[in-house]
Amino acid sequence: MEQRSEKNFAVAVCLSGVFGVIGIQHFYLGRYLEGSCDLGLSIFGYFSLMNGEIVLGVVALAIDGIHTFIVTILLLTGSFRDGQGKLVCYPGQKLKGASNV
Known about the structure:
By secondary structure, the chain is mainly α. The protein is 57% helix and 0% strand. The chain has a domain at 9-76. It has helices spanning 9-19, 24-28, 32-50, 54-76.
């Protein structure tokens, strides 16, 4: 039985679109490990660029950017879950096998 997350869809999407590469949306949604990994990857990428490791920095930031893009798409389609395993639903989204409250 699917359950609807209490987290606000619009806030999650905006955080993902604006601050996604540093993982703020994951912290908001209670996915702390994934948020920490995003933040660490961003810091590592920028640190590598500042220390002349251009290829390593670009690869790290590209991986982080691709991950953020995928998470944003999953959020927009109502397919992403919060830290409690509940779906972050877009307005009007129907859940399968559950009351839509």
